[in-house]
Amino acid sequence: MKTGKSPLPPPAFLITVDTEGDDLWSQPAEIATKNARFLPRFQALCEKHGFRPTWLVNYEMAECPEFVALGRDVLARGTGEIGMHLHGWNSPPIEPLTEDDHRHQPYLFEYPEPVMRAKIRAMTELLEARFQRKMVSHRAGRWGLNSTYARLLVEAGYRIDCSVTPHLSWRAYPGDPRGSGGPDFTAFPDRPYSLDLERLDRPGDSPLLEVPLSVIPSPYSRLNAWLEGGPSLARRAFGRFFPPRYWLVPRDRRANHRGMRAILRHALKNGWPCVELATHSSELMPGGSPFFPDDKSIERLYRRLESLFALAAKHFRGMTLEAFAAAFSGR
């Protein structure tokens, strides 16, 4: 018997790219943007499978003519989105926080609130001038979100954030040496929710939709916890092949590829409205990151992405963050 209800659309497959300079893991004092020339290949792969990446752009890439040309073309053809990604240490106005901000890479929330507001405003205005679009999507540099930051995003007109990494903590990753490290997201929701601006770990009624990175505990999470007090060499070796959690972030490991496919299965089984993959623009260039040091590693990456995207295209629909937020609000 017909119920009159329309079937639910397939969940969204969201692709987010932190679009930034080359190998920021090495903490360079001068930042190059050679990775921009390697990005059309990734855009083409996404389009081949019907996906629309959201390029989350920081200061040096907004000043890179080669990337700006790509971003404008993507927007003109409706095959992706431009959003904002902010690294506090090199985004104007420059207000030094430590003796060497390029080395320490402070989290934006470690700066005084007036400086945070000024940096968000300047970065937003720059991107809107470059791309002639209102910026609505955002990811914090180094995943460094807190309540003050979220409130300032709402003030600046942002509607979507994707800084939360459920089941993961960044406390052990310092910014300002006088600070307490990054945020702890271990107890945060793993599905999209409107943020409570006072308590980011619970749903609220703010206009800012949080779309977390897709992360799930692996079948080996308890064993990894049991090994936590054991020899570091054994712990690292076990974690490399049997990680405690899976996240939808490509790495040059077979276990990572298996884990990303497991996330797709988990999302479908549990009725998730979306999954979100994240990468960095510099990870798409040989030598642009510690994870993909050469041409061979990049070619392996693309073979695995081809396989993952082909699988995802059978069960998910491609959307930008902005399009997903509009559809999610109408659910």
Outline of the structure:
The chain is α/β, with parallel strands linked by helices and 331 residues long. 37% of the residues lie in helices and 13% in strands.
Structure annotation, total helices:
11
Broad shape? globular
Structural class by helix and strand composition:
alpha/beta
* Number of strand segments: 11
Strand content: 5-15%
Q: Return the CATH topology.
A: 7-stranded beta/alpha barrel
Average the pLDDT over all residues and give the rounded result.
93
Just give the CATH class. Answer: Alpha Beta
The Cα radius of gyration reads: 19 Å
- Helix percent reads 25-40%
SSE succession: EHEHHEHHEHEEEEHHEHEHEH
State the distance separating the first and last CA atoms.
Answer: 24 Å
CATH architecture: Alpha-Beta Barrel
